[in-house]
Amino acid sequence: MIRLRGLRISYDTGFSLEVESLDVRRGEIFAVIGPNGAGKTTLLGAMALLDRPAAGSLSLLGRDAFGGGDRLELRRAMSVVFSQPYLTAGTVADNVALPLRLRGRRDPAAVEAALALFRVGHLRDRDARTLSQGESHRTALARAFVTGPRLLLLDEPFGNLDERVREEISRDLRRVVRESGAAAVLVTQHQEGALTLADRLAVMIGGRLLQQGEPQEIFARPASKAVADFVGVETVLPGRVASRQDNLCAVEAAGRTLMAVSDCEPGDSVFFCLRPESVSVSLNSDAGGRRNNFPARIVAVEPWGLEYRVELDCGFPLQAAVTRQLVDGLGLKPGLEVYASFKAVAAHLIKR
Amino acid sequence: MEFIIEGFRKALGLILSGNPEIFSIARLSLTVSLLATALAVVVGVPLGSWIAVKKFPLKKLLIALVNTGMGLPPVVAGLVVMLFLARSGPLGFLNWLYTPKGMILAQVIIALPIITALTISAMQSVDRRFYRQVLALGATEWQAILVCLKELRLTMVAAVIAGFGRLVAEVGAVMIVGGNIRHQTRMLTTATVMETQMGNFDMAIAIGLVLLALGFAVNLALTLIQQNRVIAR
User: Fold this and answer.
1) Which domains does chain A have, with CATH numbers?
2) What's the pTM?
3) What's residue A69's pLDDT?
4) What residues of chain B have any CB closer than 8 angstroms to a CB in chain A?
5) Residue A215 in contact with residue A207, Cβ under 8 Å?
6) Rama region for A24: left / alpha / beta (φ>0; ψ in -120 to 50; rest)
7) What CA–CA distance (Å, rounded) separates A56 from A38?
8) Shortest Cα distance from B50 to chain A (angstroms)?
């Protein structure tokens, strides 16, 4: 569907985007995640054929997209959805029919079908400017799908929606993309959104794609410290592999020996990475078979979404994500002496 | 004071009796200014949109020039057009001097920078991302411009009102290019000047009132179009 090679875009500001290689397969939802200003939107603009890059080759739907040819026809085979719906004056049905009108077509049945896909059929005669935010985004999605696109590009879709509405629309979007068989590229800084939607992920930071792979892989095994920081691996300790038995590495870090499952060699300098969800907190020293178990003192307990973040001092800083019941049940509070444990398989080593 | 009231009384009499001369002058005035406005819109709106949307070197300089053109004194426009249309001028072969066609040409030149500049600023007020979204829906550049202009219809009608208002009230260019020839190129404005100079205040007032009424009628029509859209929202 998309085959991008050696893309380079530079700006006068000194920012440059360089993507060596990116492939999106048929029927796949591919997400590019990264912080603000990472170049995600620039990348999408190039794929949408709205901007011309300085160098690189792009094959869209099996056709060369940068080398002359009819870009309009290629643009008309795809749809782009931005973070804001950008509806035009007129009714909801007028808006959804716009892409058809631009192609010189009239197809009320297609408009009805697209409205139904995103469950806005009952709004067809409403003035588009009187819609709620969620309805506006649904209308924009119906508009994007009315032409039956084979490729869908989503730039931070529904960025400013509240969480509940965003989740609802995300679910509908996922269903529609799956049913249509179209490929989709999603760029976003919302990792949860990317996780619910995407089959594969790429992490973009500072204009470079640092890692591509399946979401679980990237979140559990970031390839670099920058990726680890971005995907919420909160404990990242510099250390050295002291020894290895089969896959089990003993890592010297912060004066402690930590166990991790990895294929790093003894002597390698590494970052020891651990997600807060992988850390258990208990009042007794029974680690229940976890290979890492340390006495710790609680530094802080802070609410974090529906859960709590517990900041621990085990001689090195460690973050744990725990439930509210656990905080109440164990009476976790700053200053309390506890035990922190985690499995060797939950830890991940990044070579430095 | 007396002669003013007397002037108005006679003027109303002239209008109500349907003085044929006044109405033929009004018809010519309306035709020339409406046609000139329409031509300026046909050229100026696409031109202004293109300038606003495209990126090219010296764009800011060009916009500054167009903006300056908004203040072009009609007498200067009239003088230049007259020189071009004069028998020995480059466009002398057209034989447009002292004809309505010549006056329309001069008025187009006055209205074009107004329509173009107002279109540029209107188009530049459109969120660039909206324009990109329309392109991304499969529009050609001209289609995207058209969609934006539709969004801007309030502002665009205001631009037409501004252009027409300037032309219907303008006297310098049509005087120089048209020559205020009776039954041929006499406009409401040039007639008002002439009658005033000749001391025919009743006729001058009558023509002046017709001019006001005409301007009001056209602007009322345009405003109704504009505001209907607002209510339709």
Assistant:
1) 2-225 (3.40.50.300), 233-351 (2.40.50.100)
2) 0.82
3) 64
4) 127, 129-130, 132-140, 143, 147, 150-151, 233
5) no
6) beta
7) 19
8) 17
